[in-house]
Amino acid sequence: MRIIYLGTGGEEGFPSVFCECSACKKVRRMGGKNIKTRSGALIDNVLIDLSPDLFSQSVQNHLSLSGVTHVMITHSHTDHLNTHAIRLRMRELASVLEPGQEKKIKIYGNREVYRVIMDAVSKDCHVTSDRMEFIQIRAFERIRAEGLEFISLKANHKKDEECLLYAVQNETGCLLYANDTGELPEETLDFIRTQKLCFDLVSMDSARGTLPGDGHMGLSENLNLRRRLEEIGAVRENTRYYLNHFSHMCGLTPKEYRRLVGRYGFSLTYDGLKLEIGRGRVCRR
């Protein structure tokens, strides 16, 4: 199983477009891996979320996403649900496919995601409706896509919406992709325990950095989640932990935060990071 972190920043990106905080000023000068576009990932050939930066992310990673036919959406916030990209994928002239390529893209998400997508699509007279199929899902369902099993888990993020996380597994590995959440709900941890999920890679939200968590995690919540996963037997001795969805909120640059969290055995993701998960190992590609 392979994962490409297409984007690893929070809602505003890093540096934030209109922000003059000290961290954003530093990152504008530093550039490189400190620049963070809005979060999204490609796992094998399945997208998790559709970032508003998807165009630049595909260019930077030398990717054509024309062959992607499954998209797993976590929630309806606009930094994760780019309805413009969906409408372009549904337009014959905007997204010309090779002969034999599957025209229909399947999008999985909750009821609010469905409402937002259909509202955008209904206002676009150029889309071809049979180019998209929406599959509404709830927490604790299993979905097969491209040889992978996605298990939807309940997040702790948006109070008026059932936001989702995903566990992803195949015959060689298992990962937890846990963006946009505070402390995981007990029912999610109970499900992980009862289903005997065991992760080779744990990818955690860290938008709050050194600040206390809210609908996002900070370092304290990251440490607590690792402890809870260890207690329920959901990780191995060599499980790798990556912190993702980092923002400017705590005032540290990614380089500064990477040094800090490294003391605790965590790595910080960066845009374009490629990992391969298999047979109990996580390797950079």
Report on the structure:
By secondary structure, this protein is an alpha/beta fold. It has a single domain (2-284), classed as Metallo-beta-lactamase, Chain A, CATH 3.60.15. The chain is built from seven helices and 15 strands. The chain has an eight-stranded mixed sheet with strand order 6-5-4-3-2-1-14-15. Strands 7-8-9-10-11-12-13 form a seven-stranded mixed sheet. A hairpin with a 2-residue loop joins strand 2 and strand 3.
Helical content class = 10-25%
CATH architecture: 4-Layer Sandwich
> How is the main sheet built?
8 strands, mixed
Structural class: alpha/beta
What overall form do the CA principal axes indicate? Answer: globular
Runs in which pLDDT lies below 50 for 5 or more consecutive residues are: none
Query: Going across the major beta sheet, what is the strand order?
Result: 6-5-4-3-2-1-14-15
Number of helices: 7
Q: How would you spell out the order of helices and strands?
A: EHEEHEHEHEEEEEHEHEHEEE
Structural domains: how many: 1
In CATH terms, the superfamily is Ribonuclease Z/Hydroxyacylglutathione hydrolase-like
